From TrEMBL:
<feature type="binding site">
    <location>
        <position position="192"/>
    </location>
    <ligand>
        <name>substrate</name>
    </ligand>
</feature>
<feature type="binding site">
    <location>
        <position position="163"/>
    </location>
    <ligand>
        <name>substrate</name>
    </ligand>
</feature>
<dbReference type="InterPro" id="IPR033752">
    <property type="entry name" value="MetA_family"/>
</dbReference>
<protein>
    <recommendedName>
        <fullName>Homoserine O-succinyltransferase</fullName>
        <ecNumber>2.3.1.46</ecNumber>
    </recommendedName>
</protein>
<keyword id="KW-0808">Transferase</keyword>
<dbReference type="InterPro" id="IPR005697">
    <property type="entry name" value="HST_MetA"/>
</dbReference>
<comment type="function">
    <text>Transfers a succinyl group from succinyl-CoA to L-homoserine, forming succinyl-L-homoserine.</text>
</comment>
<keyword id="KW-0963">Cytoplasm</keyword>
<comment type="pathway">
    <text>Amino-acid biosynthesis; L-methionine biosynthesis via de novo pathway; O-succinyl-L-homoserine from L-homoserine: step 1/1.</text>
</comment>
<dbReference type="GO" id="GO:0004414">
    <property type="term" value="F:homoserine O-acetyltransferase activity"/>
</dbReference>
<feature type="site" description="Important for acyl-CoA specificity">
    <location>
        <position position="111"/>
    </location>
</feature>
<keyword id="KW-0012">Acyltransferase</keyword>
<feature type="site" description="Important for substrate specificity">
    <location>
        <position position="192"/>
    </location>
</feature>
<feature type="active site" description="Proton acceptor">
    <location>
        <position position="235"/>
    </location>
</feature>
<keyword id="KW-0486">Methionine biosynthesis</keyword>
<feature type="binding site">
    <location>
        <position position="249"/>
    </location>
    <ligand>
        <name>substrate</name>
    </ligand>
</feature>
<dbReference type="InterPro" id="IPR029062">
    <property type="entry name" value="Class_I_gatase-like"/>
</dbReference>
Length: 318
């Protein structure tokens, strides 16, 4: 079954052109099944680009998925029309009563800003805490992954002097973990960030496992033993040209960005990017939906159990 997305969402036409089947709400209503409920809290300024990237990865399963696009506040984003936000996004306060099988919280362009100085930090913390009671499994991406570590475990990221940008090889550290099922022992994934937390720091947190790691980029996939938290420090959803667009943008802003590693042919920005990560990115999301969401979520979401006090204490213990 395909993902079910709102009619007229721009992502629908893009996915159909890529031969990815997306079902509109009218057709989905005729099927007598219980679809997975997945929310996407999109913190990126270019909402439409991020929507397409994530919906593409969610589409490669036999499951039918209802997707809610969620916004943290009603302020107009810089790179997305207000009409798009009004038509397709729901304020968090308006869905806070719901329960979800899965939730994805995206990264945000807040690399160098202390968490307490983020204008919506209190709202982000409220979403993090809400997810413990209302979501079976939550996927935190890039900035959100580091923010979750800070909020739940009091562990702050370190900031690099140079931005980590490129496509790096990673090793699977837990081949028997279901999230890594089907992965090659070495695979590639894009990164674009300043923040980092050492693999040892993750590993010392009771209840967390580092599933994949890179010598250059550090910990990449970290998951809780109960499958309800997954932190991805990179960007498996990136399009082929995304790192190039970021590099050109930084040049245009008068910065001196390093050429993304292992990305352009011969490391020459005039050449086309080498796309080496998309199959494993798709597999990661497929495994998350299957083993961490579908196989563990209750049929009746009203019976979804919040984390117990023991689980919460275990999560915060080092």
């Amino acid at each position: 079954m395909p993902i079910r997305i709102p009619e007229q969402l721009p992502a629908q036409d893009i996915l159909l052109k890529e031969n990815i089947f997306a079902m509109d709400s009218g057709r989905a209503a005729t099927q007598d099944i219980r679809p997975l409920e997945v929310g996407i809290l999109n913190l990126m300024p270019n909402k439409i680009e991020t929507e397409v990237q994530l919906l593409r990865l969610l589409s490669n399963t036999p499951l039918q998925i209802n997707v809610d696009l969620i916004r943290i506040d009603d302020q107009a984003p810089k790179h997305t029309p207000q009409s798009h936000m009004d038509a397709f996004y729901t304020l968090f306060e308006d869905i806070a009563h719901k329960r979800y099988d899965g939730l994805i919280i995206t990264g945000a362009p807040l690399a160098l800003l202390p968490y307490e100085e983020v204008k919506y930090w209190d709202k982000i913390k409220a979403v993090f805490d809400w997810s413990q009671r209302h979501v079976q499994s939550t996927l935190y991406l890039c900035w959100a992954a580091h923010a979750a570590m800070y909020h739940f475990y009091g562990i702050n990221r370190q900031l690099r002097e140079e931005k980590l940008s490129g496509v790096y090889p990673h090793k699977v550290l837990a081949p028997h973990n279901e999230l890594m099922r089907g992965f090659d022992s070495v695979f590639y994934a894009p990164h674009s960030r300043y923040g980092e937390i050492s693999p040892t720091t993750y590993a010392n947190v009771k209840g967390l496992d580092v599933l994949a790691c890179s010598e250059e980029a550090g910990a990449y996939i970290v998951a809780s033993k109960n499958k309800r938290t997954v932190m991805i420090t990179g960007h498996p959803e990136y399009d082929p040209e995304t790192l190039r667009d970021e590099y050109v943008r930084d040049l245009g802003q008068g910065l001196s960005p390093q050429i993304p590693c292992n990305y352009f042919e011969a490391d020459d920005p005039k050449c086309e990017p080498k796309v080496t990560w998309r199959s494993h990115g798709t597999l990661l999301y497929t495994n998350w939906l299957n083993y961490y969401v579908y196989q563990t979520t209750p049929y009746d979401l009203a019976t979804l159990n919040p984390k117990t006090d023991n689980e919460a204490e275990s999560d915060k213990s080092k």
